[in-house]
Amino acid sequence: MTSRKNSLKSTNKRMTRPKLKPKPKPKPTHKPTGTTPEEVPSTTDRISKLPDHILHHILSFLPLQEAGRTSILSHRWIHVWVSMQGLKFYTDEFANCGPDKFISYVNAALPYRSKQDLQVFKTFLFNDSPTNIAASTRWITHALKNDVRVLHIIIRLKNSGENVIVPRPMLTSRSLEELGLFSFPNVRIITPNVISLSQLKILSLQHMDVNSAFMEKIISGCPRLENLNLHCCWLSCLGISSRMLRNLVMEKCEIQNQRENEFYICTPNLENLHFNQKYVVCSPRVNVYYWLLKLDFRSLKLDIPNLKSLILGGYWVARDPAAVTFFLQHSPMLEKLTLICKEVYRKRRDVEPLNMSSDLCFQCKNLNSVDIIGNKSDKNIPHLTEVLKRNGIANLNLTLDSSSVFGDDCLKMLYDVWFWINYQSIYT
C-alpha cells in the first residue's frame, strides 16, 4: 500500500503545472538627455519651487477668485496670491451675483494681503450709494498706502453727467506712474485746488468732461507727464502746453470752443500725435439734429517742431487738404503720416479743381511714405493724393475698402444722437 501511495504522489507531482516567471519589463530605448528616471520622479512639484515673481506672473492670467483658490494647494501657496503685486478686481467675475457680493469679496480679500508695494491696482469706483462710495474709497486708499504705481479706476454711475469726487490722495500721490480714469457715460471730476503727481508719466481719460481749469491743473501738477490719452472726452477747450509731453492721443473727443486763447497745442518735445475727430454737436442746445462741426485749424496755435509720427482722422481729412497741410507745415521733422478718411454722409459735394496755393505747400524732408485709409467711392481722396504728390511725396500706400459709406459711421452717429438726448435731459 505504501508503495502505491508513493507512486500516486510522484504522479501528482509530475502532473502539477510549473509556475510561470513574470516577464521582465522592456527597457526604455530612449532616455531623456542629462537626466535619469530616478532624478525626475513623476510626483515632483516643480511649479511650487518657482520664485514668487514667476508665480505672480502665472496667477495674473487667472481671475482673482481662481487665483485665491490656489491657497488651498499647499503651505507654499497660502501666501502667494495675497503677495501679488498686481490686483485686478472686475465685476465680470460676479456678473451672476450682483455688485453686493463683489463689494463683500473685495472687502474680505484686501485685509489678507501682505503689506508689500503694489505695482498694479484696477477696480471700480461706485457712485450709486454712500455705502458703495465709502467702500470704493477704502480700496483706493489701501492701494495708495501700498505705493501703487499703476492705478486704473472704472467709475460706475447711476445717471449720466454726475459729479464724482475722487479720493484726494489719488491726485496727490508720490508713487503713481500711470493713472487711468474710465467712465460711461460722461462724468465730471471734482478735483482739489492742487493736483500734485510728481511721478506720473501716463494719464488716460475716457468719457470725461475736461475744462480748461482741470487741464491746467493736470499739466502743472504732473511735471513728468509724457503720455496723455483722451478718448471720447468732452473738451470745453483745447489748450495743452507742456515741455515733457511726448505722446498725445485725442480719439473722438468733442471740442466745444475754439477761442484763440484756448485753442493751442504747445509741446516742443512731442513725438507722436493722434488726432481723430469725426463729428460733434455744434450747439449744446441741439437735441435731435447732429451736425458736423467745422474745426478752424487755422486758428489753432501749434508748436510741434520735433513731431515724428502723425495720425489724422475725420471727415475733414479728405475734404479739406489745407487742414492736413497746416499740420505738416508745423512738423518739419515728420517721418510717418497716416490719414484716415471716413465719410459720414452719402451725399457729397462736388470736388473743386486743384489750386496749389501757399496753404497747400509744406516741407517734410524725412517724410517718405504716407498711409491713406478710406473708401473707394470717396471722390475727395484723389484730390488729397494729388496735393501730397505735388509736395514731393511719391510713395502713397492706399487702403481703400468698398463698404457702405452709410454703414458703421451712421450707426455710431445714431447711437451718439441717442446718448446726447439722454445726456441733455438731465440738465434741461
TrEMBL record:
Residue ranges occupied by any F-box domain in the UniProt entry: 44-77
Stretches with biased composition (Polar residues): 1-10
InterPro entries in alphabetical order: F-box-like_dom_sf, F-box_AtFBL13-like, F-box_dom, F-box_SCFL_complex_component, LRR_dom_sf, LRR_FXL15/At3g58940/PEG3-like
Matching PROSITE patterns: FBOX (PS50181)
Composition bias type Basic residues, residue spans: 11-30
Disordered: annotated span: 1-45
A Pfam family per the record: LRR_At5g56370
Name of this protein: F-box/LRR-repeat protein
